[in-house]
UniProtKB/TrEMBL annotation:
Transmembrane segments: none annotated. GO terms for molecular function: ATP binding; protein kinase activity. PROSITE patterns: PROTEIN_KINASE_DOM (PS50011). This is Protein kinase domain-containing protein. It comes from the Eukaryota.
């Protein structure tokens, strides 16, 4: 049996303003950089549900959460024990959707995931906590690897 006691953290979508959302994403990116550079860990699952925040004395502090799929940078070039790709598909890097891609994951893949997170926060919401009626990236949620590869490639090259 395992247990954990921790302070309450909130989903990035619960921020009260665009400024707060920007601060939360910035802080989460700083967390990512720190665990990469100091801890030598690659997160590999940057997505909307893993960027969180805590509020202290009215200020927001972004948090990068859920390191279940993280791996040591020192282990990246070893043969993977699983043939499954890691990450949440709408946020995965474009090349990771290619059927011929077999890794390893790199820092740039997580950075690209942050790009998609910012894109979706900005386009799928009319303001903090306000989802638009027809989000432009809704089809990405259940899209196939082929669909996502095509859409992301076009987005990145046009």
């Amino acid at each position: 049996i395992r247990g954990s006691i921790q302070e309450k953290i909130f989903h990035v979508g619960e921020a009260k303003s665009d400024f707060e959302q920007a601060q939360i994403v910035y802080d989460a990116f700083q967390c990512h950089e720190w665990v990469h550079d100091i801890g030598r860990v690659l997160h590999r699952d940057i997505n909307m549900n893993n960027v969180m925040f805590r509020r202290i004395n009215g200020e927001v502090y972004g948090v990068l959460n859920d390191f279940d799929l993280a791996t040591s940078i020192d282990d990246l070039d070893r043969t993977p024990t699983s043939k499954h790709r890691t990450g949440t598909r709408p946020f995965m890097a474009c090349e990771q959707h290619d059927i011929d891609w077999n890794g390893p994951s790199r820092y740039r893949h997580d950075a690209e995931s942050f790009f998609y997170l910012i894109l979706m926060l900005g386009c799928d919401h009319s303001g903090p906590g306000k989802k638009v009626k027809d989000p432009p990236f809704q089809a990405w949620i259940n899209g196939s690897d082929e669909y996502l590869s095509d859409k992301k490639h076009k987005l990145l090259t046009t």
